[in-house]
Design a protein that fits this description.
The protein is mainly beta. The chain has helices at residues 2-18, 113-116, 231-234; strands at residues 27-31, 35-36, 43-53, 62-65, 67-85, 91-94, 111-112, 123-124, 130-135, 139-140, 147-154, 165-167, 173-180, 187-194, 205-206, 208-210, 240-242, 249-250, 256-258, 264-270, 276-277, 284-286, 290-296, 305-312, 318-322, 328-329, 338-344, 350-357, 371-372, 392-394, 413-418, 431-439, 445-449, 465-469. Strand 13 and strand 14 form a beta hairpin.
Length: 478
Amino acid sequence: MKLLRVCSLCLFILTAGAGLVQAAPEIDSMTGPLNYTDQSSNISVSIEFKEVVTGLDDQQDFSITGADFVSLSGSGTSYTLLIAPTGGDIDLDILTGAVQDGSGASNTQAFTYSSVNSGAVIEDDAEPILVSMAADHDYFEFTSWESITFILTFNEPMNGDRLNVYMVDTTAGGINWIRLDDTDNSVILVDVVLIANDNVTESSLVDLSLSTSNLVKDASGNGVANSGVSFSDLNNGAVIGCRCDPLSLSSPQNRTIYDSQSSVTVTIGADDDRTISGLERSEIIISDNATIDSLSPSSTTDTTSYTIVITPTGSGLIELTVSEDAVWDDARRSNEEFYARLTDGSVALTGTFAITATEPVKTGFGVYEVYIGTPAKMAFGRPDGTHQGLNLANLGSVTNADMAFDRTDPVWAILAGTDYSLCTGISSAGYCQKYEITRTAIGAISVNVPADVWMDNKWDMSEALSFSIDDTSAPEVT
């Protein structure tokens, strides 16, 4: 009998021990809307457990598709999850081990919204929105068969099989391909090939628009809310313009003399007086011997010219540079880099030199075919394949002693005119032409005559000539 009692005790102990194994906590419901139509509004999901649980308190306890975690509130058996849609149908998991009941048992499998709701998810019925449209070119060239890639950014992933955009102006080109971006499926790339033909003129513009028939859809099949919107709509009316008629800047103060004791006003505008805008102070570079006091009007104002007030802070040539693409016209044509140079009146000195040919010439050249400083333009010439070489020589040195310096700083000089008196006495077997120059800054002056600007009676073209004018006087003490 004692053995039987022992065994009964053993059975009691074993039975009591088996009662320590507790069931995992269970979920009662996960309730949310059937769908959503506004991606900008948060969605509330109610979560109910069959018993009091703890541990559900942070973003790490969830896995969510189609939405981002916003917040979690509640305790015991009832919780409220707030999420923000990111596009597409929404499903979510409460991860394995996220919650514990009163005995410490954890959920051994994830609680999935679609499983709890017999396969239903929160369906995406929100229309996607085209947020921005950009282009990798600001303009196109008339003579080139090039392409422009437009970048269309939406607020959610898009359907790569349902992409439909069209050109507003088909005379300038056509769409080559459309695809989703490789790294971000909320971005559509559209490549437009530009056609260089007689249909493209200075007024040709490239604009791009979404289809107006909802043929651009998101991953859930919803058509775009702002269908029909164009590049110009999203960019304050700007379009891609043809640089058939480039925007060139000019300044009436370029190559003028300034008074180093006072402020100087420089006016810059398009050389054909077209309306421009966009210039900012950061896009103007000035040499170290001057400062910019003001720029007007503002970059957002349409104008025909900008007024720049500068104050010299030292001596010598003042160089002012407007950066490339700093100024735009109405057709989105931008400027090339522009330079304005102002001569310091305190160092402006005049001198003369002459250039001769070794034999009579049929045609000569004028002031603008002799380059002082950096060459600036192409010279006239008609080589005919029988070039024998007409030699040029520098006849004399500068007649004004003040033109000679021992400084080697870069220098600019202005050709002031021609005077043939220096050529007196040259044999009729040759040819001579004299030039007067005005120095604009201290330093060596370079003179360059390109090849093929003179020709003799046999139509042989002249060879190039280069020489410099130096100064041997003592430098100034400042």
